[in-house]
Amino acid sequence: MADLPVGGLVDVPLAQTGEGIAECELLKWFVQEGEEVEEFQPLCEVQSDKATIEITSRYKGKVSKVLHVPGNIVKVGETLLKMVVDENASIGIDENASILPSIDIAQDCKFNELDVVDSLLKNEKIRGVLCTPAVRNFAKQLGVSIEDVLGTGHDGRIVKEDILNYAAKKSIFKQNEDSSVEHFLGDKKSPNISSTWDYEDRSLPLRGFHRAMAKSMSLAAKIPHFQYVEEIKCDALLNLRASFQKDISNLGIKFTFLPFLVKSLSMALSQYPLLNSCFNEESQEVTLKGSHNIGVAMATSHGLVVPNIKKVQSLSIVEITKELSRLQELALSNKLSSDDVSGGTITVSNIGTIGGKFGSPLVNVPEVSIIALGRIQKIPHFNEDGNLYPALIMTINISSDHRVLDGATVARFCNAWKHFVEKPELLMLHMR
């Protein structure tokens, strides 16, 4: 405590949350002004381009002033809040709830009595209003002050119904034909299109993973891509998955195609390691990665995120299935760690679960290859004798950095992978 500023008032900055991270979005506060805080207690939750992180306190003391609200972009090193860490420096409140500052504050702290009074009176507002831009704009249309509405959503988040209920109680609009709830929410039975409706443009700032995708794709767009499309028969893979699900039901996991495809992909990468590499444009150097850290693109309500399964070459299909399930749960709850989303060596985008035969993805820099999986379809095929038969076909598209990979290398790699998928029993020969 000897190196603390005069008066015990310290700035708590946003620390470096990961390599290359310059700023974070403040998601929510766990503390409020005037609250006692223990050492290592979580203060707030922030989201960088890579992960969601909890910021904990280095001190034991009392929160004196919060400087940011949820939704703000905070630079690394910028002050998040001010905290009183001296036992003798506290804020007292008398019986009549008048605010009596009792902090001996040095002139260079830039903290005066008016700051204390103002911050405590506006405590709830400073904690931030949790709502989406759409809800905020909806409140603006109704003339409702968003700070006055009590949120009933998760963590006090304000939803559209809260705005409507508040407006109804305050008689901001009447329940009539021209100004009804359905007018704002939309009546599914009889849409009411009013000539007086105000169609306003809305600006949606890119945050978190959306911002990371914008940066990554801007870099990827500068790379010359080579696209290779192929069809893979999945009949044998379907039968193998069904057998596993039936005979190993006691494991309590559900097998999908993806873990098999990820494992067979790793087998093919062992034969063609150039696809499992990273390219450094400045040094014009290609690094062949020793581990197969296969990323899986996941679409979430927070944006597109690509966590990766580490060291796939040393994992069994059961282990891959469990790790994939863990990453999916964390992605949906926005709890992926920095380690989960960093260190990838090649990416798989399974767009087939949503729809579409195939896509043309851009590489995830600095990786040199990404694979888009289309949906599996039953279509007519001819065998070598010319007889027609139904086949389960999946169309894939391999996008590669043409500065590193040529068409022949990608085609040979794809043939090797296709061989493992169409004859999954061959995996047994190469598994370790």
Question: What would you note in describing this structure?
Answer:
The chain is of the alpha+beta class and 432 residues long. The chain is 28% helix and 25% strand. It has 12 helices and 20 strands. It has a 6-stranded mixed β-sheet, with helices on one face. A hairpin with a 4-residue loop joins strand 4 and strand 5. The radius of gyration is 28 Å and the shape is elongated. The relative contact order is 0.10.
Oligomerization status of the protein chains: single chain
Cα separation of the termini: 55 Å
Q: SS-based structural class?
A: alpha+beta
Taking pLDDT < 50 over at least 5 consecutive residues as the criterion, the unreliable ranges are 1-7, 88-127, 173-195
Reported for the largest beta sheet, the result is: 6 strands, mixed
**Helix count, DSSP H or I runs of 4 or more residues:** 12
Strand order within the widest beta sheet:
11-20-19-18-14-17
Strand content: 25-35%
Rg computed from alpha carbons, rounded to a whole number of angstroms: 28 Å
Total strand count, please?
20
Mean pLDDT: 79
Residues in helix, %: 25-40%
Shape: elongated
Summary keywords:
432 residues; six-stranded mixed β-sheet; four-stranded antiparallel β-sheet; 25% strand; elongated; disordered N terminus
Q: What would you say about this model in short?
A:
This protein has helices spanning 113-121, 123-126, 133-142, 160-169, 181-185, 208-220, 235-247, 257-271, 317-332, 338-341, 407-422, 427-430, and strands spanning 9-13, 23-29, 36-37, 42-47, 52-56, 61-66, 73-75, 79-84, 90-93, 99-102, 225-233, 277-280, 285-288, 294-296, 298-300, 303-305, 308-309, 346-349, 369-382, 388-401. It has 432 residues and is α+β, with helices and mostly antiparallel strands. A hairpin with a 5-residue loop joins strand 19 and strand 20.
